Amino acid sequence: MTILPVAAAQRAPAAIERPRRRRALSWTGIGAYLQAAPLALVFAGFLLFPIAAIVIVSFLDYNSVQILPRFTLENYRELLFSAVTWETYLNTFRLAALTWAVTLVIGFTLSYFLAFHVRTRLWQMVLLLVCTVPFWTSNVIRMISWIPLLGRDGLVNMSLLRLGVIHHPLTFLLFSDFAVVLALVHLNTFFMTIPIFNSMMRIDRALIEAARDAGANGRQILWNVVIPLCRSGIAIGSIFVITLVMGDFVTVRLMSGGQSASVGLMMSNAIGLLQYPAAAANAVFLLVLVLGLIAAIVRGVDIRRELTIAAEPASAADE
Q: For residue range 182-209, what is the model confidence (pLDDT) as tens digits?
């Protein structure tokens, strides 16, 4: 008969402790929200609200001098049913695809050399910092510096003419799509290199040694070990490059000499003509397309899972 009161007395502290734990968990959750509130407000004030304003303006009418507070779908109708607009978008996608392919090859090669052929961490960091030297000047100065190099009387043409390799100056080197892609690659290769290099540095070298002991050659190790473990870095670098190239207009304007067009340049021209609703409609449509590309990249590669798997060997090695 004395067992029941003793058991009840033992359960009583546990029953009292549960509400305290729930109260502590609730306060912990509120504290987390309070800590995230300032960043959320900054995010909403500087990103969400401007995007919402652009969306609203894209549905307004306009004339040659002002925006008219009148709802209309004409901006999107002109955008979606204009052959010139679709040609401009296709040209932008083509420039982005070419830039992405070249930056991927250069960035992967450079990252592979730094991660697997440079033995000391000090020299890896030094050589990686050397890659940042072009960023010490503005983008416009770096693009203008290509003009005396690639012009008809530039260093490349003069050198080839004196060597007898060509008999006439090469006109495609400047003010062409080649010059645009060259400048875009110059500007964006670093954004592809850093994520891939970070992924390669997280690869457990024991996996490569195991593949080599199993009889795999260098090409098989690269294709079956290194590249699969670098998918997260390739995905992040691709997102950086594609988003930067799709919205670029200064490079296209300077390096094409007005002979090429892009969506960013089309929006810049519309803003110059005070056609803000038309530019806003193009911005919204471009944002949707870029978000679709990013969603496709993220869906093809689970970045969180890849980063978690890649971080496990590094953390184990540190232990």
A: 999 999 999 999 999 998 988 888 888 8
**Interhelix angle for 177-201 vs 303-318, to 10°?**
40
For residues 135 and 278, membership in a common domain is answered with yes
Co-location of 22 and 166 in the same domain = no
Reference 185, options 254, 101, 293, 294; nearest CA is 101
pLDDT, tens only, 92-147? 999 999 999 999 999 999 999 998 888 888 888 888 888 888 778 888 888 888 88
DSSP 200-242: HHTS-HHHHHHHHHTT--HHHHIIIIIHHHTHHHHHHHHHHHH
Within a domain: residue 243? Answer: yes
| Most distant CA pair in the chain, distance | 113
Q: Are residues 185 and 219 in the same domain?
A: yes
Q: Select from 303, 243, 269, 271 the least CA-distant residue to 99.
A: 243
Angle at 107 between CA 301 and CA 159, to 5 degrees: 150
Contact present, 112 and 226 (Cβ < 8 Å): yes
Residue 104, Cα to own-chain centre: how many angstroms? 12
Which tokens go with 55?
A: 């969306």
- Please tell me whether residues 253 and 144 are part of one structural domain: yes
Domain-embedded: residue 169: yes
Looking at the 3D structure of the chain, how many domains does it have?
2
Same domain, 287 and 172: yes
If asked whether residues 194 and 49 sit together in one domain, one would say no
Per-residue pLDDT band at 300 (split at 50, 70, 90): confident
Structure tokens at 109: 């090669």
Radius of gyration (C-alpha) of the chain in whole angstroms: 28
Nearest residue to 67 via CA among 229, 275, 303: 275
pTM (2 d.p.): 0.80
The range of the structural domain enclosing residue 37 comes to: 13-57
Co-location of 159 and 261 in the same domain? yes
Q: Are residues 159 and 259 in the same domain?
A: yes
